[in-house]
Structures are given as structure tokens and as C-alpha cells.
């Protein structure tokens, strides 16, 4: 198998797109442009290899349904940024790091070992087949933005609402 070639133009376009999407969602991309470009190169290589942008800092299986949690932006990004100031690969960072007031520090891996993972569909089927009601048996709490009504299922509410940009304190536990 020959190495995957990614052009500088591909990286430029992906970088601009990621930076724009991040800003629109209330996120920041690392200010270290060279580092960001290397991560983006890895994302693009994974997209060519697997058909999806798996995090370049994690080992992808090549099966999208097994890797949905590590498709960039990964499921762990918000909790990592909240707790450590950056996501696992440090592509996404908080305001302090983006503005140079704090340095990136190592982020521990949140992704469970393969033996403890299942596809989201399999987890939902297991929950329902275990006799739980559909709403009451969700594996994660559901949070609602009190400003716009956006709903998300996760351990903690997002730091910023991706729809209306309200801060974390404007979320309430819905289920």
C-alpha cells in the first residue's frame, strides 16, 4: 500500500474550514498553526484511508461504526476542554490556551478500552432490551439549553451551546 499523499492546498482548505466551524460553534483551534496543520494532515490521511476523519492521535479500527466516538470532533472533546483546557490531541483548546495565557498540558485518555466499547446503536439496544424505558433508560443524561431548547445527551452540558452560544450555566438537566 502506498503512502497517502495530502497536498498543502488540501490542508489549507481543511484548516480554514475547521477554524471557521470551530469559531461558529464557540470553540478555538490551537494557536500553534504548524501543530494544527500536522493534525489536520493526519485527519485527512485517515479520511482517505477509512472514509472518515478519525482522530490522528488514536488508533482507528477502520470500521466507522466502531470509531464514531473518535471522528473529529470526537465525543470526548468538550469534557477534555472543560477539565484540561484542550482536547486529547490538542487541536481544540480553551480561550486561555488560544490566547497564550496557559500552555497545553497532557490530557488523559477518556476513551474506554475496546473490550468496554460498543456501537451507539448496540448500547441503545442493550438499554432498551434490558427493560428500561426509552427516555428514562438513556445511558447519559440529557441537557437542555434554556435559551433555545437545544438538547444533547452527555455526561455534562457543553461549555457553550452550539446553536445560540449560551454558556454552560444556561443548561438544565432535562432527563
What would you note in describing this structure?
The chain is mainly α and 175 residues long. The chain has two domains: 8-116, Ferredoxin thioredoxin reductase catalytic beta subunit (Ferredoxin Thioredoxin Reductase, Alpha-Beta Complex); 120-173, Rubrerythrin, domain 2. Helices cover 35% and strands 8% of the residues. The protein contains six helices and five strands, in the order αβαααβααβββ. The chain has helices at 8-24, 33-50, 64-67, 77-84, 95-98, 120-129, and strands at residues 28-29, 92-93, 142-145, 151-153, 171-173. A three-stranded antiparallel beta sheet has the order 4-3-5, with no helix packed on it. A hairpin with a 5-residue loop joins strand 3 and strand 4 (151-153). The chain is globular. The model is unreliable at 121-134 (pLDDT under 50).
